């Protein structure tokens, strides 16, 4: 009787040892579900039998809640498995490199970075960090993090597993990464005034311009100038004006130096070429929400001054149109 008991015990222990040391085989995942983040709009597919246990902007995928608990407290007893994270963070004044260094430091607090690779994700440059975190003397957590920037957002995709679970699920990780998609860009909705696609030509004794035909000519007092004309959009503070006066033998640089002190609350200056001639400009502001720019050009001893004003909250409606008019100028 004792012989039978001991034989049974040996058989049980043998089966226990074999089961404990059994290698994790790659899973056969037939169906995947799609997760769409309600805030950032990204999508990713994950095994149908897995669970999404995160929050918007911090998607977390595991085989079960018990596996997630094990990742939260890896040193405690628990169910082994895998973890996939998709986290989105705003730069909030930091650079992408600073965000990457924070991730590096976080990994190094409990483990090591094995390698770094420059890769591409959705045609965007990305950094891949391979890491290992020791859990026990016989088991490690292994994985990799992929980081890339989209506008002011940093995306961090993390794939990890305990021991053999990591190697067994690499194909699942590859499938999930390949399924990851960014949201489709929303079409830009233009509010307010929109320039007409119909272009008209206006010729003066000094230059020729092309302009959208829904800009209106406004009569201005030329005063001491040789010529003055203004084109206005839908607001009186959104216009482009041309004044012509004598250069008195001065170069455009001298004219610019003599005039730039007249402009207050300046925010920069620059140089462009108009009809093959150097033009200098200065940006300034005359009142809240109204931005302005003045160009100075000298041709045939005449100064052509171009003044733009636009409503800054709708800058994209006005400034590109006024700039395009300047580009069409043909000097005489």
Short description:
The protein has 332 residues and is an alpha+beta fold.
Which features would summarize this protein structure in a list?
332 residues; Protein Transport Mog1p, Chain A; 19 strands; single chain; 7 helices; alpha+beta; 7-stranded antiparallel sheet
CATH class of the largest domain: Alpha Beta
* Strand line-up of the largest beta sheet: 3-4-5-9-8-7-6
Q: Spell out the CATH superfamily of the largest domain.
A: Mog1/PsbP, alpha/beta/alpha sandwich
| CATH arch. level architecture of the largest domain | 3-Layer(aba) Sandwich
Along the chain, the helix and strand elements come as: HEEEEHEHEEEEHHEEEEEHEEEEHE
Class from secondary-structure proportions: alpha+beta
In DSSP terms (H or I, runs of 4 or more residues), the helix count works out at 7
* Share of residues in helices: 10-25%
According to DSSP, the number of beta strands is 19
**Whole-number count of domains:** 2
Shape, please? elongated
Write the layout of secondary structure elements.
Layout: H1 2-20, E1 32-36, E2 43-47, E3 51-52, E4 58-62, H2 65-72, E5 82-90, H3 96-108, E6 112-121, E7 124-134, E8 140-150, E9 153-162, H4 164-168, H5 170-179, E10 199-203, E11 207-212, E12 216-218, E13 227-232, E14 239-246, H6 252-259, E15 269-274, E16 277-287, E17 290-299, E18 302-311, H7 315-328, E19 330-331
Antiparallel strand pairs: 1-2, 3-4, 4-5, 5-9, 6-7, 7-8, 8-9, 10-11, 11-19, 12-13, 13-14, 14-18, 15-16, 16-17, 17-18
